[in-house]
Amino acid sequence: MSARPGRRGRDRKAEVLLPAAGRHRFERGDAPSVAVVGGGIAGLAAATGLAERGARVTLYEREESLGGRLAGHRTRLADGSAVTMTRGFHAFFRQYYNLRGLLRRTDPALARLTALPDYPLQHSGGLTDSFARVPRTPPFSALGFVALSPSFGWRDLTAMDARAALPLLDVRVPDVYARFDEVSATAFLERVRFPEAAHHLAFEVFSRSFFADPRELSAAELLLMFHIYFLGSAEGLLFDVPSDPFPQALWDPLADYLQRLGVDVRTGTPVHDISPVEDGGAQVRTRTGPDRHHAVVLALDTGGLRQLVATSPRLGSAPWREDIAALRTAPPFLVSRLWLDRPVHAERPGFLGTSGYGCLDNVSVLDRYEGEAARWAARTGGSVVELHAYAAGPDQVTVREELLARMRQVYPETRRARVVDARHEWRSDCPLFAVGTHHRRPTVRTPHPWLTLAGDTVRCDLPVALMERAATTGFLAANALLAGWGVRGQVLWTVPRAGRSPLLRAIGALAERRPLR
């Protein structure tokens, strides 16, 4: 893909990535059959990119609903209310160009997303940072954060190791992985000498976004996050959230759109193995038997990808299979959603990041922004509160009890509240970007020309992370297959792949004279 500067959202320096040249779409008689295995964000993006060009797509999803880690299911509370339980809060940042482009297929104005006015970060020592008034345009975003932050002052800035911090000014993708993948996020922060409060509030929050302990997380991923949100993009740190549960707001409309394009959506259909066939393509075996396809996209989480490759012995090369088998998942995390019999105080934000409160990483008040929760709260006079513990464990019951106690510490008015009902999601299926593992992560392309990979596990040499990495690799997986058939793929967008300011890049380049190890 070639790249040139382009305009998307408010950032005039965002880059547009053009796909390989080709015809607009397949003719009716030459459309290939493609299996997309996995119905999360990556699989939905791949299926969309292929089906819009006329490919005959079958989407296989092992669960009964689409959305992957953002799926949801209906449940009934003790008071008789029917509600939707999901895997919890996710922030749709304005830098998520390709994810937001996917959602625009059914919601052109993104009316089903609502903006949260702030992203406060509270430390147990009493300090709270806010991003509501921080400028969006770099470098004023970072300078504004320092100027407005009670936890990171100018005195702290002068105490930092300036040379060790220089790489933050010149993050280049993919070079950042060559320079910092062998270093942990914690080691980098200690070398830079960030003040303790800022360490927790600004950077550990980023590492926790990967559901990882910062002592295990690659520093390259941490620097990438800094680039995406502070010095690489003018979109800022504020974000949007769906105004209804994920299925109703996002995936049900997208499933309808795909089906109108002719996609065969098969939920509740796990794929057992994939076998290459001699004249190209593969057989995809499910409980109903094998299906023949010209190409396959594997858009699975880390564990699902490992398992499917393990049960498909003819897939890939030996080194490729070894790299897949070496993939690791992050520690377990817990999402506890509580329906309370009384409201939290009116000034409580929709989302609050926390640090220093044991295993509690954030608190969401769903009835501040989610329609279903708001209707329940209005009808009952209560509130719906969600608690997250990342890199938690190993005992789920203990973590549940601590989350409840910490909620009552952070929001003391909940001490008198009765829990009407509760639901808990205890999972361990997020990828772990451990120190020194970047070179072994699989890429979109594989040893087979008819097989591509997608998902947030997949290595991508663009400044994308989390949900946006899933969406971007999904489209890239589709584009790779389409290019092989001479069909033009999806145009993609990204924040700049290097620092925005020539001066800051020049200053940051000085750090290469003393690499961090």
Automatic annotation (TrEMBL):
Residues 41-482 form the Amine oxidase domain. One of its GO terms (molecular function) is oxidoreductase activity. It comes from the Bacteria. This is Isorenieratene synthase. It comes from Streptomyces venezuelae. The lineage of its organism: Bacteria, Bacillati, Actinomycetota, Actinomycetes, Kitasatosporales.
